[in-house]
Amino acid sequence: MKHALVIGGTGMLKEVTRWLVTQGYYVSVVGRSENKMDNLINHYEEGEMLNPIFADYQNSSYFQNEIKVAIQEYGAFSLIVAWVHSQGSESLSQLLREEMFTNADFFSCTWQQK
Question: Burial, 44: exposed, middle or buried (Cβ in 10 Å; 0-12, 13-18, 19+)?
Answer without folding.
Answer: middle
